[in-house]
Amino acid sequence: MNSFQSLRAHYKTALQRFVASPKAFEVIQTVPAQQQQQQQQTSPPELLYVLDSSFNPPTTAHLRIAVSALLDKPTVSSRLLLLLATQNADKPSKPALFEDRLAMMELFAGDLLEYVRANLLETATQGEQPQLLPQIDIGVTKRPYFVDKAVEIEEAAIYPPTLEQVHLTGYDTLIRIFDTKYYPPSHTLQPLAPFLSRHRLRVTLRPDSDWGGREEQKAFLLNLAQGGRESEGGQREWASRLDFVEGKQPGDRAVSSTIARQAVRDRPDDLEWLVPRGVREYLTDQNNIYSS
Length: 292
Ligand SMILES: Nc1ncnc2c1ncn2[C@@H]1O[C@H](COP(=O)(O)OP(=O)(O)OP(=O)(O)O)[C@@H](O)[C@H]1O
Ligand SMILES: NC(=O)c1ccc[n+]([C@@H]2O[C@H](COP(=O)(O)O)[C@@H](O)[C@H]2O)c1
Hints:
Elements: H1 3-20, E1 25-31, E2 47-53, H2 60-72, E3 78-85, H3 98-125, E4 135-141, H4 146-155, E5 164-170, H5 171-177, H6 192-198, E6 200-204, H7 214-225, E7 242-245, H8 257-266, H9 271-274, H10 277-285
Parallel strand pairs: 2-3, 2-5, 3-4, 5-6, 6-7
Antiparallel strand pairs: 1-4
């Protein structure tokens, strides 16, 4: 059994245990493992970044979203939770198997730490103290909605009880979080109130033909702040709980998990810029994941 196969086998067992348990959220790995953390933060975190995704597969867009958040506040002690949603609000389950995705999440976490370390070292040469690396947790949840994911994370007693969560999403996901169709029976935005009173959303713009251009996407925030969502139960003050950040620049190639899955089948050379190195090596080694 090679190292990728044993990684996959490890997550298969962990997943079976989680699925059979009554738990709706569990952290199943910390990267790097506890005993290797000499250079990592051990003080309680002040912020928890949460990247919830299908990781099907993890891409360079996911990497950019996470790195941008971590490097934005390098002096704040933070922790990152990569959260695999085993139940999606809309999409039916499709390849790859969850154990493959979890294995790729661990490799992705390694790539991410390497990237952050290199960046912090660069800062240090400019006369500043190098910062410590964040811990990265790999978790699974059975909850499809953000409001419920946040409560599960709070109640799991893994993190300090009042820790602020910053959920890292793309603009397309923000639109769906603010869609009343997900909140029966009232079908208003009221269920977002407890979530946004305690936590934040860091939203990466995702300009494209389906979701509109940058200016159109930025207008979401102004509309919310001016009371444009009040008729649905959306509060003006929520605008201060949302941080919008730039994503793909004009001329940059679009990156998504869908494009990466297609590349595995049709244009493997494109994986070079679509997925981080560790994920690419896994996809090349386990070459049947997206083949059908
Ligand atoms: N290129 C991107 N720009 C901005 N946000 C992104 C990008 N790719 C993913 N995200 C965001 O990351 C989160 C998790 O992404 P998700 O797993 O849905 O990736 P995806 O590439 O959209 O997947 P798929 O192509 O399978 O639909 C979502 O909030 C999504 O909006
Ligand atoms: N209202 C909501 O909280 C809401 C709506 C749509 C998707 N989601 C979640 O967003 C995450 C990303 O979804 P996609 O993989 O479909 O882009 C998934 O965990 C999905 O379940 C949440």
